[in-house]
Design goal:
With 187 residues, the chain is mainly β. The protein folds into two domains: 1-118, Methylamine Dehydrogenase, Chain H, CATH 2.130.10.10; 124-187. Helices cover 0% and strands 50% of the residues. The chain contains no helices and 18 strands. The protein has strands at 3-6, 12-16, 22-26, 29-32, 39-44, 50-55, 61-65, 71-73, 82-87, 93-98, 103-107, 113-117, 126-129, 135-140, 143-148, 154-159, 166-171, 178-182. It has a four-stranded antiparallel sheet with strand order 1-2-3-4, with no helix packed on it. The two termini are 25 Å apart. Keywords: Repeat, WD repeat. InterPro entries: WD40/YVTN_repeat-like_dom_sf, WD40_repeat_dom_sf, WD40_rpt. Pfam families: WD40.
Length: 187
């Protein structure tokens, strides 16, 4: 298992594996995805009705309905491998990071790109929407950045003195706090 995601109600669990299987468990019902990609990441929409998958070997992303009967959209735009994906809390946006050094936001319904962020030619290591979906927090090796999802404006940036890189950044549930992981066992 290389990625897993719970639905907001805890009733659905997605498991993605490197051999291309996407296992969806809902109560006592389970099934495999109709595609056989080598999956790297998976995200479940907040309403539990859509699934975004990222292929491990290619720059390939698909968005499916949870019945896996039809593919909704296939976003593009990254020029190198896509690394991670997450839905905004309101379910209207999808954010992707890629090896091309970009953090891109797509409309979750149409698959059309809404924003593309670059920061000092560094790879985005982590990213998270705030609870209102109005801001996107991102982390590169030594910095945190806060972006407006509406305008694309860089709202704030902070350089962090670390003994390692920032590997993870997230908002608290109320959006008032940010937590980061800076190397081994440091929060």
């Amino acid at each position: 298992i290389c990625a897993l995601e719970f639905s907001p109600d805890g009733e659905v669990v997605l498991f993605a594996s490197k051999n291309g299987q996407l296992k969806v468990w809902e109560s006592a019902v389970d099934f495999l995805s109709p595609h056989m990609l080598s999956l790297k990441s998976v995200a479940l929409s907040p309403n539990g009705k859509m699934i975004a998958t990222i292929d491990r070997d290619k720059q390939y992303t698909q968005i499916w309905d949870t019945t896996m009967s039809s593919m909704a959209v296939e976003p593009d735009g990254h020029t190198d491998k896509i690394l991670d994906v997450t839905y905004s809390p309101d379910g209207t946006l999808l954010a992707f990071t890629g090896k091309d050094g970009t953090l891109r936001i797509w409309n979750a319904t149409t698959g059309l790109q809404v924003r593309c962020f670059h920061y000092r030619f560094q790879l985005f290591r982590s990213f998270a929407f705030d609870p209102s979906s109005e801001m996107l927090l991102s982390a590169v090796t030594d910095s945190l950045t806060l972006w407006s999802t509406e305008s694309g404006e860089l709202l704030a940036q902070a350089y962090v003195d670390t003994y390692g890189s920032i590997d993870y950044a997230a908002f608290s549930r109320d959006g008032r706090w940010v937590v980061t992981n800076q190397g081994r066992f440091t929060v």
